[in-house]
Amino acid sequence: MDRSGFSILLIVVTGCAIALSPAIRHLWRDQRRKRLMADPFPSEWHTFLSASWRLYDRLPADIRRNLQGCVRVLLDEKRFEACGGLPEVSSEMRLLIAAQAALLIAGRPEAEHRYYPDLVSILIYPGSFRDRGRRTFSLPEEQGEIRLGESWASGTVVLSWHSVRRGAAGEHDGLNVVFHEFAHQIDQTGGGPDGTPGFDDPDDAAQWSALFQDHFDELVDDVMEGRAPLLDEYGASNPAEFFAVSTEAFLERPREMAREMPDLYAALADFYRLDPVQWKKC
Question: How far apart, in Å, are the Cα atoms of 195 and each of 136, 187, 232?
C-alpha cells in the first residue's frame, strides 16, 4: 500500500473510531450502572439512613431495593462540592442527599429517569446562602434574599446541609429541600422549568398541564384569600414551584393530599410510580 492509500485508510479508521466512541461510552456506562445497581448495599449505609431519614424505614422492600441501587449510581456519577466554609462533604452527607434524590426516581424505569442526566454537581453549604439569581427554594421570612436550595438548568443543585438534615428528620411537614430541588431537575429535563416534566405522548402532557394549572390556580386563590392550604404557599409563585411543592407534599403528606386533592395525588403517583399512601406508618 502506498503512502496516500495508507493515509486514506488511517482517516477512515479514525473516523469510525470517533463515530463509535459515544456508543462505546454509553455501553460502558450502562454496564457499569447495572453492576452498581446489583452490588450489595453496605449495612452501615442502611443503618445510617434508618437513623437519619425517617421516611426510609417506611419504604416497601422493592422500592427500597431500587432506591439503594440508584444511590450507588448517583454517588458514582455526581460530583459533591463543599461551599461557604463547609470544611468537607462527608460520606454521610453524600449518602443522605443521594438517598432522598433517589426516591424520586426509584419507582420509574431507568430508561425514563436516566439518573438525572443533566445534573453534574451538587454544591453544599453549611446553612442558608445568598440568592444567585436562579430558580430557588427560599425561606419565606427572608423575602427571597436567603436560600436553602437552588436548581440550575446548567447542571447544578445547591443545598443547605442544615435544611437537608431537617427535611430528612421531619417527615410530615411537607417540606424537604432535596425533594424540592430534584423535582426541579426532573422538570427541567422535560424541556424547561414549567411544571410539566417530559412526556412522550402530547395528550398526556396536555392532561397533566390542565390538571396542574387548575390546582395551581386554586393555590393562588387560597394564598390571596388568606386560607391555609395543604401545599406550601411558595408553590403559588409559578407552575414550576407548584410542581416542586406538590412533590414534597406527595411524599411527606400523602394521606392528606389523597384526601383533599385525589386527582393531583393520582397524577403524581402515576408519574413517579410510587404510592406513599400504602407505605407503612412509623
Answer: 14, 6, 15
